[in-house]
Every structure is written in C-alpha cells, then in structure tokens.
C-alpha cells in the first residue's frame, strides 16, 4: 500500500486506477473477520447483500443514520411507536419460514399490536466467522420479501463479525418505527372486567415446527411455523372498532405469558376456557410426548385481542373475514378478581391457575 | 402447577397467594436459559436490572413498544434520525470504559453526527447462559450513567439468552432516535473542493486500549479508551456554524475509513498531512510493535468535521473551547481530483494513497 517518496507520480496514478476498480461484490464463499472490519470487504458485503436486496433511497445513502421526514410521519398519526427485538432462532431455516422472515415479521408485529402502521426498520447482524455467504444471501432475500409484504422499509443497519465459536452462525436485530393513529389507544393497562379475549387461530405451531426442525425427535409431521405479519389484520380490526383495549402477539412464552402480562398490568383476572382454545392435533401430540403445554408454546402470527363485550362480535367477524384470522374465536373473559391471575377452566370443569412460565420450555425459539 | 378438579377452592386461593408473591428480583447468580424464556425469570431480570436502572415512565409501562409524542418531536426539528449498532467488544471491560457505556455512546454519536439531538434508545441484549448476573448489573449501571450523561432515555428493549458456547458472554444492540434541527443538512454527499477537514483530538486510543486490555501483549501503558458522547460538542459546533458539510465519528476502520467514505460519496479527493494528525506516542509505539496503522485504529469519541474554508477557524475555535475538542486541529483539505481517493502527504513530503482497509486489523473492537 505504501509508495515511497522516490516513486514517480505515474505509479501513484496506476495505483489510483487499481483502487478505483472496486467491485461492490462479495467474492468470498464464507464470512471472514474482514467482513466486519469497517473496511472494503465490509462495504462490498453491505452493497452486495443488504443494499441491493433492501433497495431504497434512504438506505443507499449509506449514512450512519437514516433521516425521516417528520411532517409526513405526523400525517399518519400522533405518536411514534418504537420497538426492538433480537432474533437468535435455531435452526436458521425451519418449515415454511426462516430467521430473516421472522426478524421482519416479529418487529412488524410488535409495532402493529400498538395499532401503529409499521413504516421503517433497522437491521443489525452479528455473523460468525465461517458462515457461508450463501446462507446470508438466502436470509437477506427472505427479509426483502417479508419487508415488501409488510410494506416496511429497511433504512439503516450494522454488520459485526465475531470469531468462529463466539456466536452461533447468525443473529439479527431489527428495531422498528411506526405511527399510531390518533383515535387508537391500545395498552395492557386498559383492560376492564367484562371484556372478552379473542385469538386469531391455532396456538403453538411455531414452537412445534422449530422443535421438529431441530431433528432431535424422530417425528415426521406437517406442522409449519405460523410466522406472518399481523399489521393488515390489525388494520382490519381497527376499521370496525378503534376502541380495542389491549392487543399483543403471543410469541415467546405463548398465550399464557401474554394473558399474565395483561392481568398484571390491568390488575384484573382473566378466565379462559380450555375447550375453546384452538390447538392442532399434531401440536397436541408433540406436546404430550414432550410434556409441554401448548399455552406456553411460541407463536409468530397469533394476535390476542381484548375488547369490550359490546364490540366483540363485530371484531370477531372482521377477524374471520381476513386470511390471517379465519380461525378466530373468543377464548375467555376478564373478571374483576383475583387481580393479576389467569385461570383456566378445564374440560372437566375444574379451574387451575395459568402462571407465568417458570423455567424454560424451549430456548432459541425466536 | 396443575390443580385437579377435586381440590378445594381453598387450595386454589392459597396458590393465588403464592403466585402473587412475585419478587421482581433476580435470585440466581448466573444467567440461565429461563432468563430468556419470556416467563417469570425473564420478567424478574427485566424489572430488577433494566427497568430499575433505566428508570423512566415509558419503559416501565412494559409494553412491547414505546410510544413517543410526535408533536413534541416536531418542536425540535423537521427530520427524525434513526440508527442502530450491535456491540460485541471483547473484553467487556477495558481501560476507562466498558461495553455498556460504548453501547450508549456509539449510538448517541451516530445520531449526533447528523446534527440530531439524541432522544431515545432501544436496548436489546443477547446473553450467554452462565454469564454472571453481577456482570450484567455492572454493564446496566454503566449504561444508566452514560444515558444520563448523554441526556437520552432507554425506552424499550429485548432480552435473549442462548446456550453456553452459542455467544460470547454478552452482545448489546442499541437503536437510537433523535431529531435533526431544520437548518442543519449534514451529509457525506455535501463535500466540496476547498473544504477543510478537522478532527477533535488524538487518534487510535480506543483501539490501542482494547488491544492492551486483551492481555495478549506484555505491555503496560496508561492508554485509555476515548469513549465519550459527542452530542454536546456537535451542538457547540452547530451553534457557531449550522452549515457543516459532512461529519462522522471515526470508529471501526478509523479515520482512513471515514475519509474514504467521504471521498467516495462526494466524488472528491481528500489530502491529509501526516504531521498534523495527532497520535499519542504510546499509541504510535503499540502500532509500531504490531505493524498497525493508527489511521485505521478504532476510536469511540473522535469527530471528523468537513467544513467550508470560510468557516473553518470559527468551527475550530468552538471545538477547542469544548472539553471533548480541546486538541482539535485541521488535518487536511478537500481537492477536486483524484475523485474518490484519499492521499496522505507524509513527513518526507511524499504522497501515498490511504485506501479503505483491506482485511481486518482488530476484530471485536466495538
């Protein structure tokens, strides 16, 4: 790289020509530490894999931050929603989905459940040295597809590479920004006795699909992850009823965790009916074999909606009219007491407490 | 957890009393997979370590997203700045700083260099099973302190735990939101021939400090990381001159990388003078021993400012008046040709090309 003082100007200009022939392409087959250096290899990786896939004018500026017009955000509502999630799912690819789609939909859904229109995402990856570049390409292509479907733009990002063994293949963080419309006020603190609890379909498919995909069980099933964006279903719901009290997607920790969070935040009781909770037979089977409870199994496209009794039928039929809600059903009700507690009415007409998950059912599920 | 149908109501209520005695405290000495479960252990960890340290009314809502008033954002400017970085620095603690402070200042600085006032952060952690809880407490306390200093609020977050060996101790992602004042228009694309390049102080301290902290060299020095927030220095600069052309903090890849990015984005040449670039003698020594170039060494508190010649003296004296800029100096100038190329005028009056970093000098520097 160094040119000593006695070299001619001519050789300096030759060097300049060489430097200018930057490819903007990754030529390595595997990720190396150089891809996280901040230098040329990293820039090529970003150009070739991220900028080309996530193609939009804000990202392609390659500034260290995206700049978003506030006036146009304000036209869409009065509050900014901001959220973040890191995705460490293992394996990276699983039936019907992968970590890339998950990293988009998971954050889109955390925005959507506030009633926000999801607008912008950041994308930060931590790569293990030795990861096949082709794997990263597949994941980025999947993110591109999911972002298009969700109508969200990836506008800024970061790339880090760690030594072999210092991370497992690939972790993705996405942070999301959306705008909440004026009339919407959804919060886990708004729940009142008498409200009804609605869910948009079968529980536990994502958790069961990951479990099967790990290949530790000698089971063959056709269970697929339910990974999907929920923003459009939420929009459909808000059109018929802006007055949704609480809404959350039941991911890690499952339905049980969301309901416990609701009960604690609003200091109400929630009673659900075992018989009305939809779970696929195959998922029940997997749970029975492994001693798991579908109430705690992860989902990646399941919406839990709490709404006043007077609006429940309206919301339910709007949900059923949407492809992501066609199996929607009412699964329980909010009761004044015991506050902070979720009760399950079993098929045998007994009641048991559905506590927050103690211990861990299934690590690296998302 | 299960209560069979023939148990009395009485025992159900006893159970309720037990469930209610949630501590909101972490009692384990080390991180377990349960701390990433979405369940009770995770909630206790979040309450005890994150919510208590980052204490603010938005975060303590514990919704899946923070909700920020758009009208009050608009009072501060016309554009939202959005940025993200993952921090994987090794070791977690190093002379005068740590990964927690770095995760705040790094993202604060990526906002600040756009001219934005940094306002809100997200915080997402990936923890390795077995990490001492005390380590996480130290890091969170450090984040709290840095966030206070930078005047920024951590308003939402995420916690994931992976198996022992699937990550190295602790990774942090922060995404940041700030607001850019109306009159400010800073971009790597705005640079013009004749502009001058100013830096706020000595190069390479962070990179050298990390290198020494790894203990692989039998060197004893008093080199400390320069990790610091730059928002206040930037504000001081913008007060005397809103018309800054380009500004970036020289982190991973060092000064050389930032200047190459500038030269490429604006299609100009940049010529810097080796003799005017401030580098501590100890850092020069470390570089000589290891064959490193201080131009590529990482910093975490160094601002590169490109400004029209007519404003340079003004900006320089404003920088010198600020504690984070007292060693500020002009290090080079922008030239029309060769476009996209950075040249270094050496002490011997020769010229060499300062290319983008090829390969990797020092992995996991930030």
Automatic annotation (TrEMBL), chains A, B:
Source species, domain of life: Bacteria
CDD domains found in the cross-reference section: HypE (cd02197)
Residue ranges of every copy of the PurM-like C-terminal domain listed in the record: 192-340
Coiled-coil stretches noted in the UniProt entry, renumbered to this chain: none
Single Gene Ontology BP annotation: protein maturation
PurM-like N-terminal domain boundaries: 70-180
N-terminal signal peptide: none
Family statement: Belongs to the HypE family.
Protein name: Hydrogenase expression/formation protein HypE
Gene designation per UniProt: hypE
């Amino acid at each position: 790289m160094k040119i000593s003082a006695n070299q001619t100007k001519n050789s300096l200009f030759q060097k300049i020509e060489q430097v200018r022939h930057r490819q903007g392409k990754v030529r390595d087959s595997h990720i190396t530490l150089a891809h996280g250096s901040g230098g040329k290899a990293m820039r090529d990786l970003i150009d070739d894999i991220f900028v080309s896939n996530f193609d939009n004018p804000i990202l392609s500026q390659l500034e260290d931050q995206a700049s978003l017009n506030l006036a146009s955000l304000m036209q869409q509502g009065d509050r900014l929603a901001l959220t973040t999630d890191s995705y460490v799912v293992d394996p990276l690819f699983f039936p019907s989905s992968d970590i890339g789609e998950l990293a988009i939909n998971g954050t889109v859904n955390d925005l959507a459940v506030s009633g926000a229109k999801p607008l912008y995402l950041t994308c930060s990856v931590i790569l293990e040295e030795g990861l096949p570049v082709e794997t990263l390409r597949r994941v980025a292509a999947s993110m591109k597809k999911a972002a298009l479907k969700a109508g969200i733009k990836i506008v800024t990002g970061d790339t880090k590479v760690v030594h072999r063994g210092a991370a497992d293949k690939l972790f993705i963080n996405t942070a999301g920004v959306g705008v909440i419309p004026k009339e919407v006020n959804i919060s886990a603190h708004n729940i009142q006795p008498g409200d009804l609890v609605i869910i948009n379909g079968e529980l536990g498919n994502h958790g069961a699909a990951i479990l099967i995909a790990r290949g530790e069980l000698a089971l063959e099933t056709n269970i697929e992850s339910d990974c999907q964006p929920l923003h459009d279903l939420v929009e459909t719901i808000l059109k018929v009823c802006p007055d949704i009290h609480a809404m959350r997607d039941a991911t890690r920790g499952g339905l049980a965790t969301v309901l416990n969070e609701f009960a604690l935040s609003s200091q109400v009781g929630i009673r659900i009916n075992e018989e009305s909770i939809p779970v696929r037979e195959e998922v029940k089977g997997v749970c029975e074999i492994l001693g798991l409870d579908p109430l705690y199994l992860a989902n990646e496209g399941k919406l839990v909606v709490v709404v006043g009794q007077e609006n429940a039928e309206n919301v339910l039929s709007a949900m059923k009219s949407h492809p992501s809600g066609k199996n929607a059903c009412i699964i329980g009700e909010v009761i004044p007491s015991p506050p902070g507690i979720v009760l399950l009415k079993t098929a045998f007409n007994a009641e048991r407490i559905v506590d927050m998950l103690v211990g861990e059912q299934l690590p690296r599920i998302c």
